[in-house]
Amino acid sequence: MSVIIQSLSRNKFYNWVYKNLFSSWVNTIMTIIAVIFVYEIGTFFLNWAIFNADFRTNFQGELITDRTFCSKNISPGEYGACWAIIYARWDQFMYGLYPIEETWRVNITYALLPLAIIGILFDKLPYRKLFIYFTFLFPFIAYFMLYGGPGLSTVGTNKWGGLLVTLFLGVTGIGLAFPLSILLALGRRSKMPIIKSLCVVFIEFIRGVPLITLLFTANVMLPLFLPDGVNPDNLLRALVAVTLFQSAYMAEAIRGGLQAIPKGHIEAADALGLTYWQTTRKIILPQALKIAIPPIVNTCIGLFKDTSLVLIIGLFDLLGIGRAALADMTWTKLYYEVYVFISLVFFIFCFGMSRYSLYLEKKLKTDNS
Amino acid sequence: MQTSLIRKIIFDEKSRSLLIQTLVIGLFAIFIYLIAQQTAYNLEKRGISSGFDFLNISAGYDISIRLIPFTSEDTHLRAYFVGLLNTLMIAVCGCILATILGFIVGIIRLSSNWLFRNIAYVYVEFTRNVPVLLQIILYYSILLSLPKIKQAFPIFNTFYLSNRGLFSPSPIFKEGFSIVFYSFVIAIIFTFFLKRFLKSKQEQTGNQYPIFFINSAIIIFTPILFYYIMGMPLEFDHPVLKGFNFKGGMVIRPEFLGMLFGLSIYTAAFISETVRSGIISVSKGQREASQALGLKSSFVMRLIIIPQALRVIIPPLTSQYLNLTKNSSLGIAIGYADLVHGFGGISLNQTGRAIEIMLIVMLTYLSISLIISLSMNIYNKSVQFKGNA
Q: Which of B21, B115, B365 sits opposite A35 (nearest CB)?
């Protein structure tokens, strides 16, 4: 008997199960409850989303062209989701009202975007320098491809929508906010009282008000502030608000990194006779930014989620397009399908970013020890 | 002479910083001046008048969710207060619910049961990686797809859940209820002193008293005793289905519930992470040492772990409360009449005083944020290390 127990306890799997699921009777009851819970929720969701769901055709094999063809509307109570709305509106979800014959331009931009970002994300990438050059080139390419220029017809931003607007606001907002936030963070730690207080007031003001009020302000008041000829369109106004918002949050993340730099580094640089900007550029920022990357990525996740707020000022981002699809009489009432789909898109992007941030944290830990 | 002045400006730190700051403030002043002038010009050209006199004009719209009486004849100023109260109501309720949920999930995340731990993990990852606005809209549409009023879903035959909200009995306070309430307040004050007295006695004699049980019993039973002495001065007005709607009782609207669920489920995910990291941050030796001293496991948690974890939890918890309060401005997406929706939206459209209204709304949010961080800072100081540790 004791031999059996010994051999069992040597079994890794048995040990793990015993320790994690059945270590005491309370634990055993919890395991049973959890199994039932997971089973119920899991079967309900899987049945709804996959097994009893319609994709392009309903249970009679007909192509679903409007909501009356959905299986669940033909025989209520038996069938689950009707994903046909996603297929029907796919182009809008991806490009908004971008002209169909021009969507290849958006596709190329989507395809180039990972190439532009990858150089920043991974520092051990082969030919990293080339990728970084491309990163700086990318905004011009993207502008040319998306908006148009010589050789390409112009597509106004009022035609942009869906994932295009979400990504545009997210990526451009982060890209523009980054240099601004470095200046703000440095300004906040400056010894000059006026510059310092200007930065503090700006950062704390932006952080103290909701993004939606900034979007309203940009939407309503920006035209009032500017001379007659200059009239930025809605997307640009939202971009201004999003950039200012993000820069304040990012500045706080960078300030955390700046505070982590030992004073001795600055004093040593001073002793070597470096100027303020030399010290900042060569000694402080490289170290501070490295420490600050995980919190910066966290603010980026926050911003990416917050881009959905622009639907309130009438822009059609991913969520806005979803609401527009639901307002269409042929597809109305398929709330859950649309919202679950959009959630999934946001989840993929944000979860990816948070994994990246975790990966960085782990890497930095091993680097320093 | 002149070269030395230039040298001084360039190389002397003090005079250089003075020069830079003068330049910056000058540019800033010019910038503000240009914007102000342009704005004045634009306003005049569009025939928009300015000033705060609009606050005394009657608003002309109705607000369905309100804590104080409001009709369409009331002023914009009153609409502002209705909105402010709604914002505060959702923020307070949301913070309380999010804290409770967040602590529960945070503790489950540290459970020794693998399945429980991972269910909580999946919950956290799925809720915090999806925009809060999307979640609010999703929960709101779930609430709207509840049965209609006529087939309202009864809970214990006192609450009725329908697509127009949760109908519940409303309390009617009769004469003498104030005495019950005062007895409750006095009981709380009394238990506070009793606790101090018993604590000092414990320190003198070493005998432990079940302070928590005694005090809870006093706080619970005193009001009940007075309730019966005063002849049960509390009645409930039950909602009754009459025709197309419920009569009597009160209703918690789906807009409020949608906001409440969206905000608190979203924020709870973040709070659970701070709770988890706070508990992890208490070193293992603390738990082992207290067990070696023979403390009961409930005492270990209450006296050793939680006080130390709170030090780590409070600062990020503050910023989560701030986020929740700011996110409560999203009520406009589902028609919850908060500050931004009512005053900042409808009043703005009716009066056209964009600058004034946005200024008031922003300053209000700024002051709310300031009050939250100030009070949380005071609380934070009370839980931090005492002395020169």
A: B115
